[in-house]
Amino acid sequence: RKSKITASRKLLLKSLMLAKAKEEWDQEIVDKQSEKERYLSERITPLHTSGLSLSQLQDLCRELHEKVEIVDEERYDIEAKCNHNTREIKDLKIKVLDLRGKFKRPPLRRVRVSADAMLRALLGSKHKVSMDLRANLKSVKKEDTEK
Q: Which residues form a coiled coil (predicted)?
């Protein structure tokens, strides 16, 4: 079966698609950068330190230091959560691979084993246990079943 598109046409379409993808990629980078600048301009207010006395400058430094500590604590907490989640994801992936991969269930065969042989297998060959299960059954009279 022959392709309906020639090789040169395929190559042209491929190069056009790559050029379009590159343009979109560059536009996305520019958009992210402008969004970042907009967000930072909203969050960060400019500092006016001119005309402040020494005590006012010290108070301003203390406030800024407290804000930095709060942000640093939040960053540390988020980083710890991310590390915990990545560790948990890695463990779960390993479990999934272990369960999926190497274990193959063998076909089970029916084996007739008497109660004595089963008890011998469970308790070991040292214990000689013979158990007659039918001897312990309750006998039922014919009249009881008719009622």
A: 22-74
Token duo for residue 115: 């109660």
pLDDT at 112: 78
Query: CA torsion angle for 4, 5, 7, 8 (degrees, to 10)?
Result: 150
Cα 89 off chain centre by: 3
Q: Where are the domains of the chain?
A: 10-44, 61-100
The whole-model pTM stands at: 0.41
Whether 133 shows a pLDDT value over 60: the answer reads no
**Do 56 and 64 touch, CB atoms closer than 8 A?**
no
**Cβ density class 83-117: b for 16+ within 10 Å, e for less:** eeeeeeeeeeeeeeeeeeeeeeeeeeeeeeeeeee
